[in-house]
Specification:
There is one protein chain. It is built from seven helices and no strands. By secondary structure, the protein is an all-alpha fold. It has one domain.
């Protein structure tokens, strides 16, 4: 039994070394690209590049833990790329909205990607993903909308915590006592 457990630990260590090695190679390649094509474009590839390494690690290992940085880095990197390159003539608020929407989409992507793992889909990324997406849309629509959304979120945040706490207490109260 000890030998089996030791073999599992070694395999886990090899998996982590694999990810570390792939990350170092990716960062090195991206730094070379930055030198060849310039910091502007090359720098924009760093976040999605590292996100792809985590995505591959998550798909190979089928572990949800790798999908969290994969989704966030891919979403944020795509938002930054779109906001600063594709829509480079947009206003500062619109650029910020695109970047925040990308980050929100990244959190939602975590939920989708985690469904591909042995641990199954996680729902929690919908909370930050939804909030960030709302903020991104508000920034795209305009400053007044962003301010109004901020006022709503300022009130909704404590109410959301109260509702979540009540739900936890309700679930505990429903459990049969042993």
């Amino acid at each position: 039994m000890t030998e089996h457990r030791d073999a599992q630990v070694d395999r886990g260590g090899d998996g982590q070394r694999w990810v570390a090695g792939a990350l170092l190679i990716t960062i090195g390649v991206l730094l070379l690209i930055v030198q060849w094509v310039g910091a502007d474009l090359g720098g924009l590839l760093v976040l999605p590049g590292i996100g792809l390494v985590f995505l591959v690690a998550g798909l190979v290992s089928r572990r949800a833990g790798y999908m969290v940085p994969a989704g966030i880095l891919l979403g944020l990197g795509t938002g930054v790329l779109l906001g600063t390159r594709v829509f480079e003539d947009a206003s500062d608020n619109a650029t910020a909205g695109i970047i925040v929407l990308g980050l929100g989409a990244g959190f939602i992507l975590v939920m989708i990607l985690s469904a591909l793992t042995t641990e199954g889909s996680h729902w929690w990324p919908l909370i930050p993903g939804g909030i960030l997406s709302l903020i991104g849309v508000a920034l795209l629509i305009g400053e007044e909308t962003a301010r109004a959304l901020g006022n709503v979120l300022q009130l909704a945040w404590p109410l959301g915590l109260i509702a979540l706490g009540a739900w936890f207490l309700f679930r505990v109260a429903r459990r049969p006592r042993v």
